[in-house]
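User: Hi! Is it possible to get a structure for several chains at once, not just one? Here's what I have:
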Amino acid sequence: MELPRNIKASGAPEAGIVASSVYAAGHRVADIPVDEAGEWAAKEGHFVWIGLLEPDRDLLLRVQRQFHLHDLAIEDAEHPHQRPKVEQYGDALFIVARTAQLFEGRVTFGETHLFVGSGYIVSVRHGPSTSYTSVRQHWESCPSALSKGEDFILYAILDFIVDNYMPVLEQIEAEVDEIEDRVLVKPMTAADIERLYMLRRDLLRLRNAAGPLVEVCRRLTSADLPQIRSAMHPLFRDVTDHIRTVQEKIDNLREVLAFAFEASLLVGQSQETAIAKKLASWAAILAVPTAVAGIYGMNFDNMPELRMTFGYQTVLMFIVSTCAFLYWRFRKNGWL
Amino acid sequence: MELPRNIKASGAPEAGIVASSVYAAGHRVADIPVDEAGEWAAKEGHFVWIGLLEPDRDLLLRVQRQFHLHDLAIEDAEHPHQRPKVEQYGDALFIVARTAQLFEGRVTFGETHLFVGSGYIVSVRHGPSTSYTSVRQHWESCPSALSKGEDFILYAILDFIVDNYMPVLEQIEAEVDEIEDRVLVKPMTAADIERLYMLRRDLLRLRNAAGPLVEVCRRLTSADLPQIRSAMHPLFRDVTDHIRTVQEKIDNLREVLAFAFEASLLVGQSQETAIAKKLASWAAILAVPTAVAGIYGMNFDNMPELRMTFGYQTVLMFIVSTCAFLYWRFRKNGWL
Amino acid sequence: MELPRNIKASGAPEAGIVASSVYAAGHRVADIPVDEAGEWAAKEGHFVWIGLLEPDRDLLLRVQRQFHLHDLAIEDAEHPHQRPKVEQYGDALFIVARTAQLFEGRVTFGETHLFVGSGYIVSVRHGPSTSYTSVRQHWESCPSALSKGEDFILYAILDFIVDNYMPVLEQIEAEVDEIEDRVLVKPMTAADIERLYMLRRDLLRLRNAAGPLVEVCRRLTSADLPQIRSAMHPLFRDVTDHIRTVQEKIDNLREVLAFAFEASLLVGQSQETAIAKKLASWAAILAVPTAVAGIYGMNFDNMPELRMTFGYQTVLMFIVSTCAFLYWRFRKNGWL
Amino acid sequence: MELPRNIKASGAPEAGIVASSVYAAGHRVADIPVDEAGEWAAKEGHFVWIGLLEPDRDLLLRVQRQFHLHDLAIEDAEHPHQRPKVEQYGDALFIVARTAQLFEGRVTFGETHLFVGSGYIVSVRHGPSTSYTSVRQHWESCPSALSKGEDFILYAILDFIVDNYMPVLEQIEAEVDEIEDRVLVKPMTAADIERLYMLRRDLLRLRNAAGPLVEVCRRLTSADLPQIRSAMHPLFRDVTDHIRTVQEKIDNLREVLAFAFEASLLVGQSQETAIAKKLASWAAILAVPTAVAGIYGMNFDNMPELRMTFGYQTVLMFIVSTCAFLYWRFRKNGWL
Amino acid sequence: MELPRNIKASGAPEAGIVASSVYAAGHRVADIPVDEAGEWAAKEGHFVWIGLLEPDRDLLLRVQRQFHLHDLAIEDAEHPHQRPKVEQYGDALFIVARTAQLFEGRVTFGETHLFVGSGYIVSVRHGPSTSYTSVRQHWESCPSALSKGEDFILYAILDFIVDNYMPVLEQIEAEVDEIEDRVLVKPMTAADIERLYMLRRDLLRLRNAAGPLVEVCRRLTSADLPQIRSAMHPLFRDVTDHIRTVQEKIDNLREVLAFAFEASLLVGQSQETAIAKKLASWAAILAVPTAVAGIYGMNFDNMPELRMTFGYQTVLMFIVSTCAFLYWRFRKNGWL
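Assistant: Yes, the chains can be modeled jointly so their relative placement is included. Here is the combined structure:
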């Protein structure tokens, strides 16, 4: 749901370009066409922030020309389905991150590619994901932060990506809590099993998306990346902590679902046993009238009981009392 | 259950402040307002110990101003739900630890944030957790220990946190022991399954709380943290050993519960089999009178047995003896 | 399905030789017999690219003589069933990679051995695998790339091998998706179980084929291999990323199949329970006419009901209404 | 079962002291009171060997004074339930090891703390464990070994501890072998399950006791411990190998028990199936007389068969032959 | 099956000695008594190769004296049941390897200890294992290889040991393939379960035997072992690759057996369900004549149907057609 922001500079943005602006001293000073970006990025104290959404090859090549980006990075940016990574090409950093959002109650995954170099940052979004317009708007209102430059923007975007995992996990957690309440009192229905199965698959995908981000964030705080000033390291360590918390939550939910599967097997087994006990109990109780009536239904000439005045009533009473006794016994030992 | 301690200095403590005192040569020399803390901390041979309980942003900012704490640390301290960690911001250490206590027989988790710098230590408690007042009181009675300074206080608090895991684990262990006694003799009830499931979840949370503490404690003994004098390293190594023992206990209990689940499946299966055997045995025994009586209940004109004088009695005896034989057979092979 | 390419130079290629050409400045300058390869490889600015398919010992020895290859490498090349590895023998690199392809809808595994040295690259294919002719043809159309030399060819072949894993995984993924749709609604058939079992075995083999390639590719970017110029490192890092993506996909599918097995156990258990409930319900309903009719089939002289005018009809109605009531009860609680 | 050894020197040993002797040139030269130990330890060519059994605080403090031991080590020695570890306090080594022995056929765990410094070794035993008197007696008969000094004694004690794990493991192995013979032929009884469960718990405890010892022994061979001369390293590497063998045995038994659980589930399932088949077969066979006899027990006026001379005999023969046929069928397909 | 080779030198070999020869320039120059071995080993360009089979202590001590072997190594060599390891004692290497062979179709494990020093190699075999006579004979026919010296012999023996794992694994693989064909079509028999269980135990033992060999071989290629010349490193790296392939095969088979267990549970469950469906279907079909006949077997005076001319035939047809209908229904939905 990309809502194009209200552009103040001349010219509507092109298709594929969400925003393309120059910042200086913490303030947006101009919205520029992509083809002037290189020029602006080179100006002392200025940096360019370009946001692209599923750009075509042509647009990517134009951006490449502005910042002398590496061919492989451009090729990667054209083809999503990369693993999260940091790659250093020449004097630019190339970062791949996977994003997770809730769209209409379902988990959807996207991919963001980031190019960071001296004086510029370019974000490329693929697949369903939240626009970074809100990041832009939030930090445009904090000039002191924004004045820190392009590596701060990198932090801001990564932090936003990581924060967006949280509502996804919270929804899954809520579902898990709800299912486990049901599952522990009676065996899972087919719908429960399917839902749990789907949650496990979603968590697997989430782990694959979030897991490698830990390493990406950690590497951004290492000393050998000139694009990230060491003053920014605490910020990136903070993102690393957040993504680790996300990862821990994912791992926990995965374990909890595994517990729920195991518990459900036991609950199911114990219900099967309960049914078997009930079945056996009723079979035993009902076998009594059948057997007794069968005996007195035989056609022997000489069956003295049949001639007794209250033979029938006696037998009926015997049947009823035996059944009642069995019923009481089974009740007592918990089979019924 | 925070019991405000008896303050000797002028002025009752503010909301959010549990204690705020200056120590010198192992003795408390004054209870001070937060806004004088920086001044006192700078005095040679003095250190300030401030204890906060769920402070509001304003109070945190005032503390920050006194000790020039890092913005990110303050932001973290405001928002609990951090993973245990040690972070070095400027010349202050920031430590996050998760605490576990028993409140009314249930495991509850809290979070403690610690700021340690030259001449001060600040503890911030979030969520349900035991007050550190007892730590304060205990060590105020040992001036020789207290005179070691703020890094000793850090040790004392961490040691206290780790010690508090023990009763929690002992209670879980007691429950596990009790359940396993039941579980091995008869299949789990739904209540047993739910209880085991909940114990597993609690242990998962405990592992998440205690696990990263090992790394935190270990890092506190590394050479590159100037806030911890090397004379203190044996103490922190000791805490590391304790938390490792806690972790080992948690892992053991987790494995034992997994064993109990597996054993319970087997016990359940063997009970199902026992019921099936019983059911089959009785079905076989009761099929005898039914079949025999059915045959002599047929209405053929020419059935010589029906005319025999003791036909009925003979058949009855046949039925009884066959049933008795079957009963004896099933008893012998353990089906009944 | 090796289709011998249209050779321009004199002489048809020998058995076991797919191609044997010299390249200079990005263009093929000659197709040569193997026995001149050493000579050409030594020429400044030229490199030789030889492709072999299951060569016999004699051919391997002739190649060995041209490039002074190590005995052990030749012995390995003669005997497939090696683990993927990089080995440095003298000034040649020896690389083993496993390939996976789909031949007529089934996963088949092959092995490729590569020798790379100054001025030459030799590929040896074993078992079913796609020919590298397409790699050759593709890059012959890009002289600028081809002019980079033999280490670029190494990259091109490895990239091709890794790319060929993808359709295999996509087919398995499609099968898994299809099976899991079936499996979650009703218990697996024997055919489903067998298919899942076979998929698991295939994935196990794929993991064994692809897993060690990560390490192989990673080592090719390390500084201590003189055969790979550092300008090529980003290319090999890119292959490393691709093979990691392949590995992640394999691991995911393995986990998903494990989930499917567990879910299937639960679905099967819940179906067993459903059948047991149905069986028990019908047994109960049908026990009513049997028991009642048995009683009124007894031959007592004095059974007043038998003499009643509408006795029979009353009993019939009692039987029918009791059965109907039971049926309604079982429906309501979901047993029927 | 500590049997106080026959002391040759003056004075019976105090409570808590098993032995306290001075050795020189491989021979015991005197049995000494604890309070002279420091003096003797300082003598060139002499070393003191003190063995304590659950000493009280007072005794520990007296020992501490003799050798200037660290407060934390003494505190640890007072409180068992430590994890195995090596700690270096000043110029003394402090080692914690867990011991396992069989007392009356049950596995019991103890703890031994060792202090090793220049000229002395102190062992402190807690809980049930074998006395080191046999170690002392054995090596007193080998003066050449004993003359190597206190680090040799350390080796001797650790070797003895590790050796004592072996009979424990052998007994468990024997039990496992015996249970698995039973378990593979028929499903586990409740007693089997309980026994297996208990063995798993014992193995878990053994792993916790033995596992960290690997690291302890390994560290004793590292170069940075001045208390262990490098000439002793092969001996400690040997102990490391032994404890690794112990650990491997424990891990194997753990896996074997896990296999046994899984196999037992399958055996149980296959028995359940066998019972279900038997039950179904007999139900089918016995349904024949019931159904047939029921039909000829109907009271219709016009049932021609009933009037036939050999109707009854024909029907009887039909019933018998049908039952026999069914029995033969079920036998043939293995259901009976 | 140790076949003593045809000795050319004077004197038959002693008990425990398989061979004891001197080699120079790739040729055997003499068969010597053990007690001259040290002398020969010291000669420039000569090396001694001694093969022992379960030697007694006395023989080991004589060998020790010749080469000045370390006490601990001799003690280890006397007591098998060591873990595979490389140990450097003085200037000799001591290597322990576990061997696996098929003797009469069963997996048996042996142990080989190797001493390698300047000018000699001693192999000590324990337990059932193939003689190294074939290694000796093979390489005696390749003087150029044999002339490389004692470290080459070490390679040759290790390579032989590793190669001998392969037939063992291939037999297990064949068995697994055969069992899995059976297991996927019908549930395991008790014999299948036992066989699978035994295979798992064998694989566990194989893993323990082969696993540590990887580390042993890897260490032999490290720079700090003077006994292995760097020219030999490629050979040892080759053995490392082979043992890794063995290990991979073992791990695969272990996983495949685990899959087979899981699949077998599902197959068993699905068979149980099929039986339950069959049982329920037949119970339902047979309940029809029982219920109907029961009703018309009642003795009410006024039962109009009984008086109808074709009442009996009508009822019979009703019963038959109802049963047929039910049979058709159950067939259609796959219960029968």
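The first strand of chain B starts at residue 17 and ends at 24. The interface with chain C takes residues 297 of chain B (CB under 8 Å).

User: Great, thank you!
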